[in-house]
């Protein structure tokens, strides 16, 4: 479903560009120009879903690892709570750390992700087991 949304978005953008191209040229678009515009939209629609996810969360025994634009580690013992926040109908996981900060995770996110509840449960289970350190496991 997420890939279909991206494909549809690319198709709609390509169609919009084609209409803008027709309008900008006064209705005189060559077949080659129209073909180039639509080809670019199709290629972009096919490539974008194949790219690796930009934001992700990794779980290891010592910490929660946030990936995307860099790497950030949060030790399990520094996490004092996890909550599910709902904004505009989209649920996300928010990590509460001992310094008082709340860090909203960009993944998992309930938008078009049927496995959100399972992913949030796995994250919560990992934290519950590891929050006191591995000595308590």
Helix content: 40-55%
H/E element order? HHEEEEEEH
Round the Cα radius of gyration to an integer and report it: 22 Å
Beta percentage is 25-35%
Globally, the shape reads elongated
State the end-to-end distance: 38 Å
Question: Which strands sit side by side, in order, in the main sheet?
Answer: 1-2-3
| Count of alpha/pi helices | 3
Quaternary state of this entry equals single chain
**Structural classification:** alpha+beta
Largest sheet data = 3 strands, antiparallel
Low-pLDDT residue spans: none
Mean pLDDT, to the nearest integer, reads 78
Number of strands: 6
What topology emerges from the helices and strands here?
Layout: H1 2-24, H2 31-47, E1 56-59, E2 63-67, E3 71-75, E4 79-87, E5 90-97, E6 102-109, H3 116-130
Antiparallel strand pairs: 1-2, 2-3, 4-5, 5-6
Helix pairs in contact: 1-2
Description:
- The protein is of the alpha+beta class and 137 residues long.
- Helix content is 40%, strand content 28%.
- The protein has a three-stranded antiparallel beta sheet, with no helix packed on it. A three-stranded antiparallel beta sheet has the order 4-5-6, covered by helices on one side.
- Helix 1 (2-24) runs antiparallel to helix 2 (31-47).
- The mean pLDDT is 78.
Which short descriptors sum up this protein?
3-stranded antiparallel β-sheet, 40% helix, elongated, 137 residues, 6 strands, alpha+beta, 3 helices, single chain
């Amino acid at each position: 479903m997420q890939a279909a949304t991206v494909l549809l978005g690319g198709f709609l953008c390509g169609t919009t560009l084609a209409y803008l191209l027709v309008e900008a040229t006064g209705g005189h678009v060559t077949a080659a120009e129209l073909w180039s515009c639509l080809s670019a939209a199709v290629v972009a629609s096919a490539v974008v879903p194949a790219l690796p996810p930009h934001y992700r969360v990794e779980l290891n025994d010592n910490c929660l690892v946030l990936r995307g634009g860099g790497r950030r580690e949060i030790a399990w013992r520094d996490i004092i709570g996890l909550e599910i926040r709902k904004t505009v109908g989209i649920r996300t996981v928010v990590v509460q750390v001992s310094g008082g900060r709340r860090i909203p995770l960009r993944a998992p996110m309930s938008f078009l992700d049927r496995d959100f509840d399972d992913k949030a449960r796995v994250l919560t289970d990992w934290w519950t087991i590891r929050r006191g350190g591995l000595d308590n496991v």
